[in-house]
Every structure is written in C-alpha cells, then in structure tokens.
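Posted in: Protein Modeling Q&A

I'm a second-year student putting together a small comparison for a lab meeting, and my supervisor asked me to include a predicted structure for peptidylprolyl isomerase. I've never done this before, so apologies if this is the wrong subforum. The sequence is pasted below exactly as I got it from our records. If anyone can share the structure token output, I'd also love a short note on what stands out.
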Amino acid sequence: MKKSYTFLLAFAAFAACRQQPQQSMAVATDTPPQHINKFSDATLRELYTLQDERKTAELLNFLNHPKPQYRREAALAFASVQDTLAIPQLLTSLSDTSTSIRMAAAYALGQIGHKKAQQPIIRHLQQEQRPTVQAEALEALGKLADSGGLNFLVNYQAANETAQAGQAWGLYRAGLRQISSAQAVEKAVQWLTESKSYEVRLAAAHLLARTPKLDLTPYRQQLTTVVTSDESADVRMAVAQAFSKVNARDKASLLSGIVQSDPDYRVRLSAIRSMAGLEFEDIDEAILAGLTDQNINTAVATAEFLQANHADVDSKALRTALAQVEDGRVRAGLIWVILRNSPDKAKLSQEYQQLYLRTENPYDKAHLLKALSADYSNHQFIAKETFAATQPVIGTYGMEALAAMRQQGDFPKALEQNFADIFKQGIASGDVSLAGLAAGVIRNPKLNFRKAYRDHAFLTEAQQKLVLPRDMETNIELQKTIDYLSGKEQSETPQNPFTHPIDWQFVQTIHPDQQVVIETEKGTITLELFVEDAPGSVANFVELVNKQFFDGLYFHRVVPNFVAQGGDKRGDGWGSSDYSIRSEFAPLHYREGYVGMASAGKDTESNQWFITHSPTPHLDGRYTIFAKVVEGMEVVHKLEVGDKISQVNLILRAKTR
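Accepted answer (user: helix_wrangler)
Welcome! Here is the predicted structure, written out as tokens:
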C-alpha cells in the first residue's frame, strides 16, 4: 500500500493548470529534475526497461545483484514478465537474507502460477519465521496449488493474524481456480464468525462468494449473523453475495430485509442479486424498493436482476414502477421485461420503437435498442438501426442485443439464416465492435454456425483489414472464431508487438504523490498516481491528460458494485489507441477506489481505465493498478453510463515536512 502524507494545495499552480489545461505539472525537459522519484537511479531504469521488454535472461542476472534493492526489484519484475524460466532462481530468492526480497519472490512465483513451485513453497513455509513472508507465500501457494497444496493451506497453523490473512487469501485464490474442499469452506465460515481481523474476514467472505459450486445451506445461520451484523460493509456485501448458494425457506425474507435496511447500497444490491430462483411474490416489495433506491447502482442492478429472472415477474407491477423511473438504463431494463412477458408484443413493440426514435441521448437510445430485443419480431428494426448508427455506442448495443436474441433458449428456428446473414454483415462492416461481437456469437458451439458458414473466408478478410495493435481485441475474437469454424484447437492468443517503450526522461518528472483531478457531471474525483509501482502506465496516463485526450469523453461502462470505466474515444468500450503498453503487476490490491488499466489481455492496455466500487480481489495481478481515489469516492458511487468527463487536470501538492 502507498504511504499517506498530509498535503497543502499549491493554489497558484492549480489555478494555472485549470486555466490552461493543456499545460502539465509533469513536463519532460532536457534536464529532468533530480531525485523526484526512484527512477533517478539509472540501474532501476535499466531493470524496469528489461521488464518492459520482457527480457528474462538479463533480468535473471539482477536476482544475484549485491544490492538488495535491485534483487527485490528484479524479483518483482517477474510478476509482470511471468516467465517460467525464472522459477528456479526465484525459489532460490525465497532464502534471501532480506525479508522484502523473500516477499517479492513469493509474489512473483504466485503470479507465474506454475505447479512446479508448489512443493518448494511448502518446504519454505515450514521454516520461514517472518509473518509477512509467510502471508505472501501462502497467498502465492493458493494461485498454483493442487489438492495437496490446498490440504497444506487448510491445515497450516498461522502464528498470528498477518500470516492467517495470507492463509485466508491463499484459500480464496485456490477457490477461484475451483480448488476447494469442505474443510476449506468450514475454515472460512469459522473465520467469519470469530473475532478475526478485517483482512481475514474479507478473504473468507470472498472465498464463500466466489468459489464456484458451493452449497452453503448448512451454514445459513452463521452467514445470517455475519450479513446482518459485521461492522464492515465490504464483508457484508460479499456474504450477501454468498447467499446465492444458500437454500432456505426464510431466504426471501432475510434478503428482502437487507435490501430495505442495510445502510450501504453495495450490500443492498448484493442481496438483490442473490434472490435468483426465489418466487417474485416473495420478493416483490424488495424489488420495487431496489428500483427506487437512492443509489442509481442499486436500481440498475435490480433492473438487470429482473431481466435475468423474468419468468414469473408481474408485468403490472413493473408498469407502475416504470412511471417512477427516470434513468434511461433502468427504464430500458423494465421495458425489456414488460415486453418479454406481454401477450401483445406487437403493440408494445411499436410503442417502444417510437420511443426509441424520439430519444436523442445516444446512451438512452442504445439502452432502448437492447430493450427491443425482448421481441424477436424487432430483429430487423434493431439490425437496421445497428448498421445505420452514427454513434458507435448505438451500433455496439444493437449488435449486443442481436447476439442476446440469438442465444435465447426459445430462439425461432425460422430466423436462423436471417441472423447468420446479420452476423456475417457485422464481420464485414469494418467496425471493430460489430465484428468482435458477431465473432463471439458465431463460435458458440450450441448454435452450430459451422453449417451456416461453409466458407468462412469472410472472417480472414475482416481480420486482414484490422490495424494492430489498435484493433487487437477484435483480432483475438476473429482468430478464436476462425479456429472454431476450422475445427482446430484454439491458436495461441495473438500478442501485441512491443512498440511503445517507456519514456524515462518523462517518468523522472512525475512526483510519487502526483495527483489528478477528474471533473464530471456528478462532481470531482481526485486520484493519486503510483508512478513508482507502474511507471509506464502512469506516464501514458499523464501524457494523455496533457493532450486533453479524456476531456469530453464519457464513462461508457458502469457495472454496479464493480467498476466505473472511462477513457474510450468511441464511447462503447471498443476504442483503443494506435499503440499498446505493457502490463505492470505490483503487489497491490484492488480495494474501494483503486484505479486500473482496462485491457483485452496481458500487454494490451492503452487508454481505457476503471475505478473500483469495492474490493475486487479477483482482479489482483491481472490488471495494472496505477492510482487510487483520494477524494470524491462518493462521486464514483453515483456515476452512470453516459456521464461526461468535462476535463482532467494534473495538480501539484507539496508535502509538509
């Protein structure tokens, strides 16, 4: 975690920055200031360049460097490089005299995630005395453990809560990989109900929430106590999510009570999501409360819940709720359910098509286009609007709507060829989102598109027109679909070429506590950048700020109680730049308000970024963390899809001594 400082605002600098947003506090010069951050050290710059270039052999030499600082940085470099060739030397580094190096080596081994490190890590844990190293090694073990490693994790006797937190996170990491056991679940429940530290309880709660295929019914009473009384909303929301795996007669009343009483919206919406499978009449009051919740994220999550669980929903109740809803995304969700469940779809479809045509906001139009997908007879209207759209978000949402229609269980067989033609048109459109989305549907094995496309040269032709690395996400989608239609095993994922080295002269001008102000329609958000953990990502972000790249863009993706995402010129999530940067994985953790680089896979980042609503540990070590929110988190929790970013500026804060 980052050090916290007390800052004073340098008002004159801030005012100048606001008046002239094209000017930055961090400006590269021929003679960069000395010792602003750790990269004034030439050896560190060399080491990070090797990391950026993924040069394993040269990095391995640094693991034997006489200075501990460089040995540690070299070990951490392999958390991003993730080359199995480094495993033997990293295992040797587990015996380094420096605690920080042993921790770094353990973290890197977990990031590489190869099972051949399992037994050496276990042997090391049997002799390691430092709780901080124990914790890092235990969590790393969870990232690569088999059933034997899991057994060691479950039975490990942690000497204190630092090590115990690592043990809990290790069990969670194993659970994400579907490596779990009844003993692991029982241990997690035990930790939750005892007076354990926040870290232990948080890990245990996420283990229960995210480990697949668990039956938590035997622990209903213990989980009820935690979800209604734990002091941490982070823990309560994860346990509320875990209730999706509980089968009990009082489940509806319990979750309904949480929806209508918990002070934190994230817990309320987690409870709604766990109501899947319950009778609508047993939860209708909670659902209506969710639709009018004071936080828009809860209302959105409720509308999404109704779409996913629409079968027994009372449409009359939703029509009443629809009159009270102002948000376009929530309104579209309700319209979808009403239309889907209506016996008179033709009349309603005409009404909602007219509503779509009268709507001017592109995001509201996009949501309504999705709503129309509840009636198969709307497919021609949706396709027409998709291919005629002048705003990318409308076309993208239209193709998503068509893809969702085709994958419904009751899809009419008579429309199969129509949709095959639509998806082929999407591939040939030249639009990256339409092609990428269509490709994803075509390779769904349940839909058997191999019969529809005897000749799939159109996919190769579309792939050849892409511009790399800008269109890498679509390139990956097309390649997967080509492999599927060819009957081949999936090819190795295409890799982005290394085209954007780190500008070290520029990096050296960025303060370790550099802050950024994001001004939005909902208020101001202030970030602190982590240049010493993610120099390439921070430099890229600051350069884009200096170019006013983000000014006037939108938050194009908001997933309730997950992330708010921005930085896309297209406004639909498919926009990238003409270059990509490398992933940078430091031992940081996604908690509330952490900022990460969006990507289509390792080393594909460019200009999109996201802010987390709450702890999201499943993102750790997979998406670069380059900043955190230090002011304005209440604004982040209010953001909606389509909220505009008016401007983004760097500000200077001076540390008090």
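A couple of things worth pointing out for your meeting: Residues 412-495 form one domain. Residues 1-25 have pLDDT under 50 and may be disordered.
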